[in-house]
Amino acid sequence: MPGFEVLYQAAALCLMFPDDDFRTRLPLLREAAPQLREFADHAAVTPPRELAAHYIEVFEAQPDHSLYLSVWREAAPAPSEELYRAHGLETTGEEPPDFLPAVLECAARTGDIQLLTGHRDGLDRLRSRLTDFGTLYATVLDAVCVTLPPAAPGRRTPPS
Question: Looking at the keywords, is tRNA-binding present (predicted)?
Answer without folding.
Answer: no
